[in-house]
Amino acid sequence: MEFDEIETIAVLGAGSMGHGIAEVAALAGYDVNLRDIKEEFVQNGYEQIEWSLEKLADKDQISQDEADAATDRVEPYVDIEAAVGEADFVIEAVPEKMEIKRDVYSDVEQHLPEGAIIASNTSSLSITDLSEETERPAGFCGMHFFNPPVRMQLVEVISGGHTDEATLDATEELAEAFGKTPVRVRKDSPGFIVNRILVPLMNEACWMVSADEATVKEVDSTTKFDIGLPMGAFELGDQVGNDVTYHVLEYMNDVLGEAYEPAPFLEETVEAEKHGKKTGEGFYDYEGGEGVDIP
Ligand code: 3HC
């Protein structure tokens, strides 16, 4: 698939990344089929897109006409055949479990036109391993967005062991058409580049709290105000989703060793389903739960 043949994009998974990626693609003028396994999931993703576009329009970052046009370009689906049957490019953003992704690829390939590219927004899983679950490993790559996709400039374009140059070129050009800056990641290593650096930082912050060496607020005021990160380490964890951070660490721990063992404080937070902003509570309390009050 050449970049200039891409017209319809299917985004699979309407969660915090999927809906944000669909929004970015729709803003860039593409027809977007947003698909999730349940009507309520896809509807929730669609409403998040509407909320975000309205917010951008209220702040004059886009015009109301652009917001309305982008909303109109997104079609919500549960039926997989309808979502991918005429798609030129698929961006998969389903949960970070190999079994789930394998089943999704198998369903997708029953209906996806030959030549269409499949790109995974996985946070860490091996692109080579994922591509081997499809019948088009050469037409498969990583396309990793950052949260929130509509605000974050970078996209990692990751080559798996079987990805061909044409797929990488088309994916990079698509990221540029989305108004993003693609960075090609040559080596399919755990966490790619950004998460390999960022996720251990978030984990180290959790180890400090586990060992009672610092509080959530102390760590965040240091990382945000002294080191100069745009968000504190814990604020960032809540933005990304603590379940996502945990899954990335589990995978890096398996593949790279014990330096990446998730901290007990992170584990407890995830076990309590305090996944961050998306569940209303994480390290911080967004809706009156038990977390630390937002500073
Ligand atoms: N759409 C529209 N508006 C949004 C939004 C969205 N998706 N998300 C947040 N906003 C709004 C907020 O509601 C808030 O609105 P308000 O002012 O009316 O209260 C406003 O944006 C906050 O934005 P500001 O411009 O005031 O704040 P900043 O300039 O600080 O920008 C930020 C916010 C861009 C999120 C910035 O804090 C930032 O860059 N944070 C770091 C994020 C980051 O590093 N993400 C990558 C994480 S790693 C990852 O995702 C990989 C994964 O695989 C783990």
From TrEMBL:
In the N-terminal section; belongs to the enoyl-CoA hydratase/isomerase family. This is enoyl-CoA hydratase. The chain holds residues 1 to 295 of 656 of the full protein. It comes from the Archaea. Residues 191-286 form the 3-hydroxyacyl-CoA dehydrogenase C-terminal domain. Residues 8-188 form the 3-hydroxyacyl-CoA dehydrogenase NAD binding domain. It comes from Haloglomus irregulare.
